[in-house]
Amino acid sequence: VFGLGRVGLAFLELLIQRRPPIGLVGVADSKGQLTGNLDPGTVLSMKRRGHLPAQVPRKNLLSVGRPDVVVDLMACDFASAEPSLSVMLDAFQAGAHVVTASKTPLARYWAQMHSAAESAGRRLGYSGSAGAALPAVAVARSLARADRITSFEGVLTGTTTFVLDETARGSTLEEAVAKAQREGVAEPDPSTDIEGWDTAAKVVILANTLWGTSADLNDAKVTGLVSRYRSTPGKKVRLVGSGARKGDDVSLEVAPKPLPQDHPLASLKGLEKGIIFFGDSIGRVVTSGGRSNPAGAAAAVLGDTLEIMEVS
Ligand SMILES: NC(=O)c1ccc[n+]([C@@H]2O[C@H](COP(=O)([O-])OP(=O)(O)OC[C@H]3O[C@@H](n4cnc5c(N)ncnc54)[C@H](OP(=O)(O)O)[C@@H]3O)[C@@H](O)[C@H]2O)c1
Question: What's the predicted TM-score (pTM) here?
Answer without folding.
Answer: 0.96
